[in-house]
Sequence to fold (162 residues):
Amino acid sequence: MGLFIAAEAQKGEKSITAGPLISFPVATTGQSDLNPGLGLEATGQYNFSDRSALLLKTALTSWGYKKDVIIYDTKRLTFLTVQGGYKFQFVNSGFFVNGLVGTDNDLQDGFTTISFTLGAGKRFMFKDDRFIDAGIDLVGADAQSRVELKVIFRLFHWLAEK
Fold:
């Protein structure tokens, strides 16, 4: 008997997950003015089939500006990201891909911009009701694009009514 069991999604299942992330800023030209950042992500998921799910994601991520870089009289950039989207799960393998769209809200000056996420990962099941999702996301935005590595833990879940 192995440490992990097959990752099976159930139609009608709902869950709330959360966990830490590490964010690496990506500059479209030259180098980014930001250092790598840290954040926390929480996601609600509703499985409308055994392979497809709707997602609602919130993330709070903060980066420090590189030495001698001060933009708008601040030394940090902190985003509250709110996105909705779709997740496709490759049945029992545990692998998944997702796409989301929403907003990045700068908590320093109230600036809001459109953002999108393309992600992929692997679900590791420990018990029927416990899992860890490890993944990588590419987040594109008008303000700051980034690559995020994350480990997400299931906090709560509700099975479909029979």
The chain has no helices and eight strands.
